[in-house]
């Protein structure tokens, strides 16, 4: 179990490998642009890639830690939603991805909500 916990913090340790000389050198808004120039892809694709990396950094440790606790997928869903919200706020993801995800989550829980409101009676 100790190995899984250590592996879950590995993505966070990768941030400390790249340390800028000054705090003013860090500009999170330019990460997709720099990634696009380095890989030779469009800025949209680089933004999706940067946001996906952020999502994996947030979801993978949560999945490894809560895997044996029988909590279902709720912790991963919450961390994924937070990661997409951060990516949208940074401008890495377009806002329509957040809206589509919110609608999918609402549709996914619509049946459960109907059951909770009616007390389990469906007719």
Shape annotation: flat
What's the SSE pattern?
HHHHHHH
Give unreliable regions as ranges: none
Give the helix proportion (percent range).
55-70%
Major β-sheet annotation? none
Radius of gyration: 18 Å
Number of strands: 0
Structural class: mainly alpha
Please work out how many helical segments DSSP would assign. Answer: 7
Summarize this structure as a short list of keywords or feature phrases.
7 helices; flat; mainly alpha
Describe this structure in words.
- The protein has helices spanning 2-8, 10-13, 31-39, 43-66, 74-90, 95-108, 110-118.
- The chain has 123 residues and is an all-alpha fold.
- The protein has a domain at 2-11 and 28-94.
- Helix 4 (43-66) runs antiparallel to helix 5 and helix 5 (74-90) runs antiparallel to helix 6 (95-108).
- It is built from seven helices and no strands.
- The relative contact order is 0.10.
- The model has no long low-confidence stretch (mean pLDDT 78).
